[in-house]
Amino acid sequence: MQVYLGIHSRIGFVNLLPDGFSWTLLRYIHGDQRVHSAQRLVALKAECNSKLAVALTIMEECFLSMVDSRTGIDMIPHVLYNWGSHFARLNYIGFHTVVLEKDDVLMCVASIRIHGVTVAEMPLIATCSKYRRRGMCRRLMNAIEEMLRSFKVEKLVISAIPSLVETWTVGFGFKPLEDNERNSLSNINLMVFPGTVWLKKPIYQSQTTNQPSGSGHASPSIV
Q1: How remote is the C-alpha of 23 from its chain's centroid?
Q2: The model's pTM
Q3: What is the domain class of 2-202 according to CATH?
Q4: Phi/psi of residue 89, nearest 5 degrees
């Protein structure tokens, strides 16, 4: 509940970063949701919807369509707009989008879903082609990790395509998910991609065992 309330309170709030950058946590607000006052709801919907539309174009620029073979559903827009489903594998309720901006330009976007304090997943992260290889992914990942740490989320997991495993392990401090950890997460509805490698990064540890976690970063992404 504490994690849920923490996320809920940050939706649409612009967080300033050095050098003129900022990051924002977004979520598509369905009509039956109650978010603060009616006036705040209208403003929040406008803010989130406009930025989500741009975030979707960046995702679609960077990834091929991810169509579910059974239903024909394109998963990317469903993740971005956190749509639910009767099928567990297609139930994307709980997803949020995090965007990195500068001068009102969206440069990098990521989709995350937090499963209590146990784990958060980040199945998608992408940088607009115009801004790649300029450290945008690292800026956004640092912000995401800091946010997760504030919620005391223990670890972040991603499913990386084989060609990007070294990028995430060497560049962002991720490690392969061990078998026992994979088994412990088997009852959690994680978004799975065929042919990918599960990686993890510790985020929050108790003060008695706390150790540096590195600068972090992750996923079947376009860095």
Answers
A1: 12
A2: 0.86
A3: alpha beta
A4: -70, -20
Amino acid at 72: G
Which residue do the tokens 């009616």 mark? 38
Q: How confident is the model at residue 216 (pLDDT cuts 50, 70, 90)?
A: very low
**pLDDT tens figures, 17-26:** 999 999 999 9
Q: What is the pLDDT of residues 121-139, one digit of tens each?
A: 999 999 999 999 999 999 9
Element containing residue 76 per DSSP (H, E): helix 75-80
Residue 174 carries which DSSP code? Answer: -
Paired sense of beta strands 119-127 and 14-16, if any: unpaired
Task: In whole angstroms, give the CA distance from residue 184 to residue 186.
Answer: 6
Count the neighbouring beta carbons within 10 Å of the beta carbon of residue 160.
Answer: 23
Alpha-carbon dihedral sign for residues 59, 63, 64, 70: negative
Q: What are phi and psi of 171, to 5 degrees?
A: -85, -30
Q: How many CA atoms lie within 13 A of 41 on its CB side?
A: 10
